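Open question from group meeting: does this chain pack into something compact, or does most of it stay loose? Before anyone orders reagents, we agreed to write out a predicted structure and look at it together. Recording both the input and the output here so the notebook holds the full record.
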Amino acid sequence: MIFRALSDTLEETVGSREASGFINLVGLAISEEIEAEYLRAAGTSRLDLRGTVDALIDLKRRMGGDFYVIEETERRVVLGNRRCPFGDLAVRSPAMCIVTSHVFGHMVAESQGYGRVTLADTIARGANGCRIVIDLDPDAPDDGGQPYFGKADA
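Structure tokens returned:
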């Protein structure tokens, strides 16, 4: 897997902190490409919230994950996952979870104007499954999430 080789090589060469920064940049670039593909498939310039959530789940399913909706309101989306799409790589390199955060955050922010992604529970940190909280309201309590802002007004 490309991510495994990239992550391992970077961590061995420049260390975990620098590797994490590079993976952040890669995650953002990937998210823009992925979003463009879903927009083309939907024939629209912006997905609504339901379309965005469906796209996130579909994307992770295609990668081998088993994501599902725990909660979905106009203020918040909570997704669960039973199988890591990165396999054992995430356990060895939890920074891979940042790729998920960036892809989810970017796509939600572009469709909704704002999204804050909190990786509440992750398989990489020893949980049985993942729980990803996506707040759509910038005034919602922050539990250490990463904020993302859309390029256009939502």
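Observations to bring back to the group:
The chain has a mean pLDDT of 87.
Residues 118 and 145 are 4 Å apart (CA to CA).
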